[in-house]
Amino acid sequence: MTHRRTRREPSRREFLKHSAVVAAGMAAAPYFFSSNGFAADSPYVPPVHLKADRPKAASIGLGTIWNFKFAKAQDLLPHLNILAICDLDQRRLVEKKEQLAKAMLGGNVATYEDYRRVLDRPDIAVVHICTPDHWHAKIAIEALHAGKDVYCEKPLSLTIDEGKQICAAVKKTGRVFQVGTQQRTEFEQRFFHAVAMVHDGRIGKVKRVTVGVDAPPSGGPFKSVAPPKELNWERWQGQTPVVDYIPERCHEFFRWWFEYSGGKITDWGAHHVDIAQWALGYDKSGPKMIEPVSVKFPIPFAKGYPTRGDSYNTPIEFVVKITYPGGEELILTHGGRNGLLFEGEKGHFFVNRGTLVGKPVDDLAQQPLPADLIKRLYKGK
What we know:
Elements: H1 11-19, H2 23-26, E1 56-60, H3 64-71, E2 81-86, H4 90-103, E3 110-112, H5 115-119, E4 126-129, H6 136-145, E5 149-153, H7 160-173, E6 177-180, H8 189-199, E7 206-212, H9 233-236, H10 268-280, E8 289-296, E9 301-302, E10 305-306, E11 317-323, E12 329-333, E13 339-344, E14 347-351, E15 356-357, H11 359-362, H12 373-378
Parallel strand pairs: 1-2, 1-4, 2-3, 4-5, 5-6, 7-12
Antiparallel strand pairs: 7-13, 8-11, 9-10, 11-12, 13-14, 14-15
């Protein structure tokens, strides 16, 4: 049984028309407002413990990664004054508002369903975008043109063209923009040591890097049901095709649908390929060739697009060969161990978030890395 709308709802089309991510309209009309279809905003009460040396910020999207950034070692609270939070799920808004109130010792935050209300506030200097991937570019570009600095979770965009538009917006506005690749932070020191070892020539010229990212789940067909009353499913879909609500399409499951993300390749791949290119010295340029060696999808494809909309459709198996100008080769695969295996003319080692192993690693006890090398890497020098 399906659950389809029985009334005309023009607000979604109007919403997308007036705030679509198009280069021609970005400067003239970066964002528009309409309360149509949005829940009422909560009253704003200034937090009682604002710190003068902290940027005033807001979070847009309050899912799994938001929880990670605010509850783990990467906790952002000591560095920000959180004035507002925004999500299309009212349940999340209530939960996170209570969580932040306790963490800020009584400080209050405003809650919004419409992210444009956040961008309209002149007191907010920084926005943290933690939405599903298909919303990243639109919100990021509008935030930049609204005069905000932006921290956007990876992957930066859903398409290459969206990424180009974000870069153009950053150049035009001059705002600060950072992508959330936390493997470059001080909390992931193993990757700094791995990159430093390659830069210091510990394995000689690199011949190959094998990046394992695990295989995504294969699921479906799933049944459509009525959307939860606290979720604005109409808005959640954004610019993607309108479909019935399937729980396995939303929240933490969105990564396994091409409409919203790119599966493990853009999930873990965004992290590990970034580290590989950093180590190889191509993080500001990139490869010269990308070749799909083999790809297996969980469902039949017709003319390059899945024939059904009730099952996960991102690849469940893949091997991709990436070649760089210096002849280095990167193999991105679902197989093997999650992490990076660096192979050079003088040795090899493996690194992931819990491990850094290999003879070149063992040799660091007797031949440590230059004292300032990791510091220079951290500062991007």
